[in-house]
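Slide 14.
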Amino acid sequence: MARMIKETPILTGEDAERFVERAERVENMSKEERAANRARLMERVAEANKHIIWCW
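Slide 15: predicted structure.
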């Protein structure tokens, strides 16, 4: 039998303000900034993969 899904809490106060601020900041990023962020992420993923042992 499936579990019931809990309601998502509503953000209020400082949490809500911080969420809106970060959401607006992401929307205002240029394509160049997004590409730079993605490149940094892919570099970190490649570095992390060097330390991961895959057991299939």
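Speaker note: The mean pLDDT is 89.
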